[in-house]
Structures are given as C-alpha cells and as structure tokens.
Amino acid sequence: MGSSYASAPVVSNSLTATQWKLFDSMRSIQDDRATAAEGVLGRVRDALCSDQHVADLGPVLRLEQSKAIDLLTPAPTEGSGTGGTTTTGGSGSGGTTVTPPLKKAGKTIVDTGSRDNLTLDEAEDEIGRLRKQVKDKQTARVNVSWVVEE
Questions:
Q1: Residue 53, C-beta contacts closer than 8 angstroms, at least 6 positions apart
Q2: Whole-number Å distance between alpha carbons of 25 and 44
Q3: N or C: at which end does the chain have fewer Cβ atoms within 10 angstroms?
Q4: C-alpha–C-alpha distance, residues 82 and 75, integer Å
Q5: Sequence-distant contacts of 16-20: CB under 8 A, at least 24 apart
Q6: Which residues 6+ apart lie within 8 Å of 76 measured at CB?
Q7: Contact (CB, 8 A) for 54 and 73
Q8: DSSP assignment string, the chain
Q9: CA pair distance 123, 27, nearest whole angstrom
Q10: Is the pTM of this model over 0.85?
Q11: pLDDT for 127-149, tens place per residue?
Q12: What is the pLDDT of residues 98-132, one digit of tens each?
C-alpha cells in the first residue's frame, strides 16, 4: 500500500504529460498504418490496465507516444530526398512484436519489438537472440527501462 502512495505522483505526472490527442488521432487511421496503430493503442491500453508494479506506465506512455508521432507524421513522397513511402505493419502486446520493412531516413527497419517485465536472465536471452538475428550491415538499437523490487 505504501508503494502505491509513493508512486501516485509519478503516475499522475505521466498521465498529465501524455499527449492523449495523439492516441485519439490514431483511431482514425485506415491505411497501411492501421495495424501498427492498433498495436500502439493496445500496448497503451495494456499499460493502463496493468498494475504499476507489472508495467511502469511512464516509460510505456513515452515510448508509444513517440511511435504514435512517427505513425502520424506524413510519409515522404518520391523525389522528396528521403525516397519511398512509409510502410508499417503488425504489432501487438506481450512478447516480441515484428513489423514488415519500414523505410525511414534512408534506412529500412526490418524488425521492431517490445518485451516487458523480463528478469535479468530473460533480458540477456533476448539480447542474445537479437545478436544472432542481426546480419552484416544491420544495426540494432535497444531501449532499456527497469524496476528493482524487494
């Protein structure tokens, strides 16, 4: 109970700082970004429904807000200097999320994912899986957040 009171201001600040209009706007996406938008909304919904000890709400909202901005940003058109159009695909909640290639700033994103509530051993296993998956000329970027509990 004490930790609930202690985390209340942090949760409240996260809720206040979130740009909810971004998520509202994503509900109207009906093109090739729709599946990715549904994934973002699903992960936000899951985080809001989860206990703060299970999924730290603040980092989830910030990450998904960033993804929402990317999805809502108009795709570059041919001749705009960045080449191609943006294509996003499936995503979901729980486990690893995979999307088809996405062209962004001269790079093609071939895989994205999210894993929540991992132990240190599970996180190391996931890093190992990523190391094996990444091919020559590919790079992997990882975002990390954590909770230490007693």
A1: 3, 147, 149
A2: 14
A3: C
A4: 10
A5: 17/61, 18/61, 18/65, 19/65
A6: 82, 83, 84, 85, 86
A7: no
A8: -HHHHHHHHHHHHHHHHS-HHHHHHHTT--STTHHHHHHHHHHHHHHHHS-TTTS-HHHHHHHHHHHHHHHHSPPP-TTSSS-S--------SSS------EEETTEEE-------S--HHHHHHHHHHHHHHPPTT-------------
A9: 32
A10: no
A11: 988 898 888 888 888 887 777 87
A12: 445 555 566 677 777 777 777 888 889 889 888 98
Please work out, in degrees rounded to the nearest 5, the angle formed at the alpha carbon of residue 97 by the alpha carbons of 42 and 64. 45
Amino acid at 70: D
Domain layout of the chain by residue ranges: 2-133
- Give whole-number Cα distances, 87 to 4, 75, 106, 119, in Å: 41, 9, 13, 33
